[in-house]
Design brief:
Blueprint: H1 3-8, H2 11-23, H3 28-55, H4 58-76, H5 86-107, H6 115-146, H7 148-156, H8 161-185, H9 194-201, H10 206-235
Helix pairs in contact: 2-3, 4-5, 4-6, 5-6, 5-10, 6-8, 6-10, 7-8, 8-10, 9-10
Pfam families: UPF0014
Keywords: Membrane, Transmembrane, Transmembrane helix
Protein name: ABC transporter permease
Length: about 250
């Protein structure tokens, strides 16, 4: 695709702008900002990836993965400011997910140890983990607030913090993983996933595209459950003090 054709595709941005203006939706500014940011960020990343792919240097691959994790942590932490130490909890979770997934992929020779595979797959895995973290933290903080009386009652009756927080924790883990699981039930029927569609458009064998997409689906399922469970069990102990009392949320 040339830059001219890319410019012509901006008509798909113009249509929602016109609708927003006509219906007084007030989305014009956000849509324009989002479009400009997407263009700048993706073009910049494209040139950076071209350099990294050509260099085939593991140090550059490492820096790219660190950048991905750093950006994901910065974005996800906003939803968990009431949880003490949420930043390092997110870092530990994302690093563990990266090590787990890449360790299996590279250790079993499922994918080659090249920038062409490591960086895109890491981006998809960490990106999904970030979204799951946001979903989990949003639901978990809401559950804690809505069940505060129930939690304190369990504690007053001699229950441990783990027992007191069990229902909100499990409910939050389940709620955050449901979108991933449900979307996978209809994949290929309702939608063709982006990675698979991209490979087919680029001329890849459809069967090979399907196999790679299935690999990503399996990765994202692991990412969804491990991220929510790990972040949950890292977070809940900091909600209580040394006297096993529930701490009031710190709304920053």
């Amino acid at each position: 695709m040339s830059f001219l054709l890319l410019g012509l595709s901006l008509i798909f941005v113009l249509i929602p702008l016109v609708l927003s203006k006509t219906l007084n939706l007030g989305l014009e500014k956000d849509a324009v900002v989002a479009t400009i940011r997407a263009i700048i960020q993706l073009l910049a990343v494209g040139y950076i990836l071209q350099f990294v792919f050509d260099a085939e240097n593991f140090f550059y691959i490492f820096l790219m993965v660190v950048l991905i994790i750093g950006a994901a942590v910065q974005n996800a932490r906003k939803k968990g400011v009431s949880i003490k130490g949420i930043t390092w909890k997110l870092i530990v979770t994302f690093v563990f997910i990266e090590v787990l997934t890449q360790g299996i992929l590279l250790g079993l020779n499922i994918t080659p140890a090249t920038a062409q595979y490591i960086i895109p797959i890491s981006g998809m895995v960490i990106g999904n983990s970030m979204v799951l973290s946001i979903l989990f933290l949003n639901r978990f903080t809401s559950e804690i607030e809505s069940r505060e009386a129930e939690t304190e009652l369990i504690l007053s009756l001699g229950g441990t913090p783990k027992q007191a927080i069990h229902r909100p924790l499990i409910s939050s883990i389940q709620a955050s993983t449901i979108p991933t699981i449900e979307s996978q039930k209809t994949i290929g029927l309702v939608q063709l996933p982006g990675m698979m569609s991209g490979q087919i458009i680029a001329g890849a064998d459809p069967l090979q595209a399907v196999m790679f997409q299935l690999l990503i689906i399996f990765l994202l399922l692991t990412t969804a459950v491990v991220t929510s469970a790990m972040l949950g069990f890292l977070s809940y102990p900091t909600l209580f003090n040394e006297r096993m009392q529930l701490l009031k949320p710190d709304k920053q």
